[in-house]
Amino acid sequence: MRTGSAAPRAAAAAAAASAASATSALPATGVCMKTPGGIRRDPGAEPGAAALRGPRQRPILSRLTNNSRIVGLLAQLEKINAESSESDTARYVTSKILHLVQSQEKTRREMTAKGSTGMEILLSTLENTKDLQTTLNILSILVELVSAGGGRRVSFLVTKGGSQILLQLLMNASKESPPHEELMVQIHSILAKIGPKDKKFGVKARINGALNITLNLVKQNLQNHRLVLPCLQLLRVYSANSVNSVSLGKNGVVELMFKIIGPFSKKNSSIAFVTLETNARRAVDRGYVQVLLTIYVDWHRHDNRHRNMLIRKGILQSLKSVTNIKLGRKAFIDANGMKILYNTSQECLAVRTLDPLVNTSSLIMRKCFPKNRLPLPTIKSSFHFQLPVIPVTGPVAQLYSLPPEVDDVVDESDDNDDIDVEAENETENEDDLDQNFKNDDIETDINKLKPQQEPGRTIEDLKMYEHLFPELVDDFQDYDLISKEPKPFVFEGKVRGPIVVPTAGEETSGNSGSLRKVIVKENIPSRGDEGEKKSTFMDLAKEDIKDDRTLQQQPGDQNRTISSVHGLNNDIVKALDRITLQNIPSQTAPGFTAETKKDCSLPLTVLTCAKACPHMAACGNVLFEGRTVQLGKLCCTGVETEDDEDTESNSSVEQASVEVPDGPTLHDPDLYIEIVKNTKSVPEYSEVAYPDYFGHIPPPFKEPILERPYGVQRTKIAQDIERLIHQSDIIDRVVYDLDNPNYTIPEEGDILKFNSKFECGNLRKVIQIRKNEYDLILNSDINSNHYHQWFYFEVSGMRPGVAYRFNIINCEKSNSQFNYGMQPLMYSVQEALNGRPWWIRMGTDICYYKNHFSRSSVAAGGQKGKSYYTITFTVNFPHKDDVCYFAYHYPYTYSTLQMHLQKLESAHNPQQIYFRKDVLCETLSGNTCPLVTITAMPESNYYEHLCQFRNRPYVFLSARVHPGETNASWVMKGTLEYLMSNNPTAQSLRESYIFKIVPMLNPDGVINGNHRCSLSGEDLNRQWQNPNPDLHPTIYHAKGLLQYLAAVKRLPLVYCDYHGHSRKKNVFMYGCSIKETVWHTNDNATSCDVVEDTGYRTLPKILSHIAPAFCMSSCSFVVEKSKESTARVVVWREIGVQRSYTMESTLCGCDQGKYKGLQIGTRELEEMGAKFCVGLLRLKRLTSPLEYNLPSSLLDFENDLIDSSCKVTSPTTYVLDEDEPRFLEEVDYSAESNDELDIELAENVGDYEPSAQEEVLSDSELSRTYLP
């Protein structure tokens, strides 16, 4: 705001005009002046300057460039200060400077540039001059500088001591009687601008006595609106300091405000707005809340042309300040404020320019909305699992020590007097606070940062893992290898065709066979026998895999039991004759035809049912009901298939030309059911979700990131506020409740029916709010009272053409990609039966915001006054009485993993691939945690071939430590399938490494629908430093494997833990670097002394070249204190693996590269898993170039990939206890703000997209692995 600058501008212009016509020029003496470029001399002092100027001489200053003119003027002003010259010259010089500043942006930049002394000269003159006009000129210059330059120039003025000088000037000016009006306007205007940037401003103003000066000035000039406005603005700045606020309140500022803020009248129209965050209690005690509301309604009714919007907003800002305290909120409710603001804001919706009023009203109403308790008996999980050992400390210990009579849903006082910082984050120094927050979490102790290999366990103790590494001792003498005769050993990394050798030993599990009809000899002993010879107290037998009966299934065998998907009517059952399956076994029953396309990229086989399933009709309206229902064939029985290239398929899937590779499919519904029967869940689930049974294929279309309609969030919030205003419209009927097993399901036809009693399901309670609106409450992680985010549930009984609104009301994260274009996933059974068996992104009017349900301090880690968040979305169902499933992300169950591993084991080519599936350990509930070993078979049992086999470096991979991050499992699926494929590059990769993979570190959490924890109620990725074998067995033994490898000097070349990220886009990595961590502490001297191999950057840089979804600029290699017990940091620090990573995959989509603007799907996630493998092969070639005989031009490729400047992106800053950085796309969750443009901040500045030249670096064989 530039109020009051018009008069000095006019004076300055007049002065400039008179100066231009003056015949006398300023002294042309040479003046040395410090400028950004160094010392420069006035050109007028140079020898021979007069001769060069020619016959017509002009005044010296007018002949200078703009840059030199301002320098010369400032030099003159500095000289005047030093010599205490006459005021006329100072007045003239300052008027010239003002003219330049007003007309030239370049001059304004020069004045505030780094190294410029212009500001000091001006402030020094201001401090010393006694001339009024000179003072006014300088104040006008300062107003111009800070008005046009934003926060940086204001901060620049503060750092030069401007606050103190201006406050002192205010003191001196106030001693005159009466004070000079123009001077007071100028001083108050500029102080109001610079005060918010000076952290000590409130204290300085109080010490200088400025508070009462400004307050008295307002009292004495109530009718002088030109003077009152800047004074009120400054009072607001003063009162940001609580001590000042109380002091002003005692001196009558509240009463004064209500003398100024009156009903609608023309005389007040010059007051732009009034807002004072001051003693709200005093305002409440005097009944001013009712007065403010009355005045606001009066302005709302009479300001028909909306010319006084700022005044109306000022009144709302005053209300907002008063309602920051509990008494103010109560007074607001008692004065019927909710209804008044709701009605006025609804009337403002039609005029877009009034949006600031709507948003501020919304914010006030949400703040005053009475806090509700979640309608639950307890926030602890509905399911209980008794732990073998109770932790001594931590949240789980507190949970167990809580007396049963304690109400853990709400506190005794849910509504405290503190301002909700999350909703009212108006701190102007937010960037500074954020930077401090980041730095607090970065580890600065060099000794802690240096990796120190710690054995942790004795060699004798680690011997328990010997049986899990048979590849290190197996001599393959009992295997029928093709080459028995010694031959020279020459290992070359060049990609060849697949190595063709006869069968190698493979455990006989009955699952032998593949599409290529490779038969494993049954007389070969199991490799598991070797492990049994080395029995220890922890020796775990290999998982007993039952014979795959489906291979020999006869058409008449109908004794198949599977579980429920409700509400499937006879029409759907009749539709089974046109069912299309994908990801089901490569063997089909008689009456089925199959078509497999070769040389493609996804492991999918399209099957078309050519035979009706009459036995299904016997199920009536219920399909898969319990374990006792007898079903006929669901098109899933299998015998060995033949490749029939001529088979026609009329399915929509086939028409979409989904390409599939020459390899096995991994989905087998019957096998899935058998595995589910052996999966142990705490609720003892007896049902199977239809999508898990039937399988998912990626849809043949792209799904763009959803554009968010303007105003959708405030519309949803307004509907929530209507619940309080129009309570009679609320149905409030429970339609699903895990805590009350006796609840009755409503029979009305227009009420939706819900279910989540299946693996990975998570839905605790559903309440019907309005006819087509439902509140959903998620279950806590077992043995926990929070971590609500993952959801997976079933809905049925819908009608088409109806917009159903779903509100998940107990989420806890402070932000979500649902605010930035992410949609929930939906799977329709009817669509699947019509040939479209896929999860699709679904939902409109999606937003994520803070709601009015209160979190108790027990659930919020001791913090009071915290609220839950709501995910809301609206769905129009395409079919009547369909059965649909909704999920946070593509579900991937534990049983799915076991099915995939069994299919991989039974279908792989044992002539090429060494594959083992062992049991790492048992989980708390008795499920097995699988451990997979994959490498290439040795070329022969000749010594040198065995040496090469045993000496391959290890790569250790893990995934799914957090159950809600299902995308990690899809990436792992892509990795596993690629490693087991017949691709020549995959064979080369197997010949280069031995892969040890734990594909699911938290099976119990996955099975039971947890979001983050295991059954111990703890985040397993915070247990790597000291895992408890009884509470965290998977982490204890996974770490044990790594410790064993370190003990036998076989440290993995790479460790990578796959994760998902809910608040960032793209795929990226976190690694560990001492140098970059120290660099981030801004201690550059220390970082220069650190010597570190930058090889940790190589793999992410490679991935940024070859993986479309990968974003290098989102990667970080900073080590934080809060992450010291995560897998990434512990494996780096304790085990000594330099390339130790967390790979994060977005839940939403990409904002760069090939997939920019698209939501991510399973195809892209699996592609990322495959590209990770390709990256490992390139890493091998870059780290061992001579061995691979690569061209010399590629020998320096790794150095080219690594940024020698050690650029550091934002660190993975600690957020609560998440594995996630602070999210940059911050929004106001209370209401959409229209005061400033709602711009989504760019997370990834400088995202990399490979150029055509860089693409040449791709190996020819790698191009064939590209997944579309």
Automatic annotation (TrEMBL):
Q: Where in the cell is it found?
A: Cytoplasm, Cytosol; Mitochondrion; Nucleus
Q: Which PROSITE patterns match?
A: PEPTIDASE_M14 (PS52035)
Could you tell me the Gene Ontology terms of the biological process aspect for this record? proteolysis
> What reactions does this protein catalyze?
C-terminal L-alpha-aminoacyl-L-glutamyl-L-glutamyl-[tubulin] + H2O = C-terminal L-alpha-aminoacyl-L-glutamyl-[tubulin] + L-glutamate; (L-glutamyl)(n+1)-gamma-L-glutamyl-L-glutamyl-[protein] + H2O = (L-glutamyl)(n)-gamma-L-glutamyl-L-glutamyl-[protein] + L-glutamate
Annotated region described as Disordered, given as residue ranges: 423-442, 641-661, 1248-1268
From the record, give the transmembrane residue ranges: none
EC number of the protein:
3.4.17.24
One GO cellular component term of this record is:
cytosol
Q: Which segments show compositional bias classed as Acidic residues?
A: 423-434
Entry keyword set: Carboxypeptidase, Cytoplasm, Hydrolase, Metal-binding, Metalloprotease, Mitochondrion, Nucleus, Protease, Zinc
Q: Which cofactor does it need?
A: Zn(2+)
Q: Peptidase M14 domain: which residues?
A: 890-1180
MF terms in GO? metallocarboxypeptidase activity; zinc ion binding
* InterPro entries xrefs: ARM-like, ARM-type_fold, CBPC1/4, Cytosolic_carboxypeptidase, Pepdidase_M14_N, Peptidase_M14
Active site at 1144
Coiled-coil segments: none
- Broad EC category: hydrolase
Q: What exactly does this protein do?
A: Metallocarboxypeptidase that mediates protein deglutamylation of tubulin and non-tubulin target proteins. Catalyzes the removal of polyglutamate side chains present on the gamma-carboxyl group of glutamate residues within the C-terminal tail of alpha- and beta-tubulin. Specifically cleaves tubulin long-side-chains, while it is not able to remove the branching point glutamate. Also catalyzes the removal of polyglutamate residues from the carboxy-terminus of alpha-tubulin as well as non-tubulin proteins such as MYLK.
Q: Which PANTHER family match?
A: CYTOSOLIC CARBOXYPEPTIDASE, CYTOSOLIC CARBOXYPEPTIDASE 1
Family statement: Belongs to the peptidase M14 family.
Q: How does it assemble?
A: Interacts with MYLK.
Q: What is this protein called?
A: Cytosolic carboxypeptidase 1
- Organism, by scientific name, is Aotus nancymaae
What gene name is listed for this protein? AGTPBP1
